Amino acid sequence: MKVKKILEKAYYENNLTKDEIKLLLIAEGEDKDLLFKTADRVRKEHIGDEVFLRGLIEFSSYCKNDCFYCGLRRSNLSAQRYRMQEDEIVEVAKRAYQMGYRTVVLQSGEDMYYTKDRLCSIIKKIKRVVDVAITLSIGERSYDEYKAFKDAGADRFLMRFETSNEKLYRKYHPGMSFENRIECLKWLKKLGYELGTGFLIGLPGQTLDDLAQDIILVKELDADMIGIGPFIPHPQTPLKDAKEGSVDLTLKSIAILRLLIPDANIPATTALGTLDPLGRQKGLMCGANIVMPNVNSLEYKLKYELYPGKICINEDATKCRGCIESIIVSLGRKVGQGKGQSRHYKRVSVS
Ligand code: SAM
Ligand code: SF4
Ligand code: FES
User: Does ligand 1 lie within 6 Å of residue 345's CB atom?
Assistant: First the structure.
């Protein structure tokens, strides 16, 4: 009964207290079903049945940071490093366009080889050659750099804050600062990017209270896109023996955030599909409306190893494109046409 009341409040007010969020995070049985059903209904009412695809181009596996959980961390000496050159990146973007993608996500470790000028040139070239929205996911830079990328044509930016617990943040991100991360996210918003952020589920030491606070922080940052994924231990990192994140808590977090920001774009992430063979389908049925298949060649896919066991690692990009479409259709949904701009962004930027 209590959960039903909380869901009614979330549905009408798009707001919840931390305690209410915690109750939803521990919901089981009928209560959990009702949470997922309500989130699915809200997704349908605000977004419809279209699932938008993003072509993910992981263009560099070099990283200057040392995040405890990530296989690309600089201290992982057995990581395989590569950098794609400008023409190669533009070629892959072209191929993605030919496969029907209307958004490409340029993602990498924090790799300063890609200077402001280099990245601007890549963005401009892609925009000249194909009509796609460009999302950057390249980590922390200066305000000036973010501005230059926006002026060059970048549309969106994804950067998770990973955890809102500052103590945990400090522990798992040596040499980095939570304050700076949040400042970067605020700059990106101010510069007019469609802003994506989110967090990891299941970092060792993370409590239910932390998770509820993570959800509140996404709402406070007024994200247009929300990326949430379970932590998956990588054998070459300090967290190699830690337990993986919970699929159940990931799905519940997706559902709660759909209720709090009804018109945001929310992906069913690859990490979710890696821990559960039906993870992406489950995500799409409890609030998610985006999938981000990798469009790189097999050689690069294998080398960009954030965590082991990633799905689609041996599949060719054309095969994934077909596979993901059949998944979407099997759920009674359809592949979105066009760039799939976040409705939240559209609504907020015109009001
Ligand atoms: N370097 C950029 C950054 O950190 O924002 C972008 C690339 S980074 C690889 C993208 C995301 O991968 C991170 O935000 C992090 O949440 C996720 N990630 C890294 N290691 C992971 C792991 N072991 N399990 C699950 N997700 C992971
Ligand atoms: Fe680098 Fe991003 Fe991995 Fe951290 S999560 S080590 S910043 S690639
Ligand atoms: Fe890659 Fe199914 S989406 S194999």
Answer: no
